[in-house]
Amino acid sequence: MLVVGKKLFENPSGTREEILAATYRALVEHGYADLTITRIGDELEKSQSLIYHHYDGKDDLVLACLEFMLAEFESTMDDSEIEDPRARLEAAVDWMFACEFDDEHQQFFATTLELRARANYDPAYRDHFTRSDRAFDRQLTTIVREGIEQSVFQECDPEAVASTLTTLQTGALFRRVSADGTEWLADVREEIDVYLEQQVYATSE
């Protein structure tokens, strides 16, 4: 679903993307609170002065990095090779509730939690995460609607299903990066499967 990690920035196109790649690496290494332009510059294989030529400061960089990743997510979803709506939805849920994160992903999502907390009082971050959540909702809504049209899903409210899954995923993300243990994830995933079987997937006659 969402491409997260250094792989996303393996082949930066131009100086701006090189700066965003450096920002991502610095975020993963230091988190938002300890992120500085100097630390971003340390990850950049060019002059640090280029950062100020393209971006106004730390938050401008972080938001641009988040926007880049969101755009990649949307293009990845649009280019999905999975045609069957049920398989696409299950692949999305598999990603949303994956039981294992490597260290890089764990740190990135912990940083995402920091940034979401800023959205409480910073309109720029609030706007980004509002649009990010809506992008997730929109993609899931499209999958459910296609499933209904192909008669592999029962009649249901696609927007409500999408909002339910996105909200559960956000809650799971907050819990797993702020508390020890992930044994509860399997139980949550099982309940989601029950929900999908009862409320979304078409039943055999």
Would you give an account of this structure?
There is one protein chain. The chain has 205 residues and is mainly alpha-helical. The chain folds into 2 domains: 1-79, Orthogonal Bundle (Arc Repressor Mutant, subunit A), CATH 1.10.10; 82-205, Orthogonal Bundle (Tetracycline Repressor, domain 2), CATH 1.10.357.10. 69% of the residues lie in helices and 0% in strands. The longest helix is centred in the middle third of the chain and has 27 residues, at 123-149. The mean pLDDT is 87.
N- to C-terminal distance? 32 Å
What name is given to the CATH topology of the largest domain?
A: Tetracycline Repressor, domain 2
The CATH architecture of the largest domain comes to Orthogonal Bundle
What is the percentage of strand-forming residues? under 5%
Residue runs with pLDDT of under 50 for 5 or more positions: none
Task: Count every helix, treating DSSP H or I runs of 4 or more residues as helices.
Answer: 9
The mean pLDDT is 87
Assign an overall shape. elongated
**Helix/strand class:** mainly alpha
What is the CATH superfamily label of the largest domain?
Answer: Tetracycline Repressor, domain 2
What is the radius of gyration computed over CA atoms, rounded to a whole number of angstroms? 19 Å
Q: What's the structural domain tally?
A: 2
- Biggest beta sheet attributes: none
Number of E strands: 0
Keywords: DNA-binding, Repressor, Transcription, Transcription regulation
GO molecular function: DNA-binding transcription factor activity; transcription cis-regulatory region binding
Protein name: Regulatory protein TetR
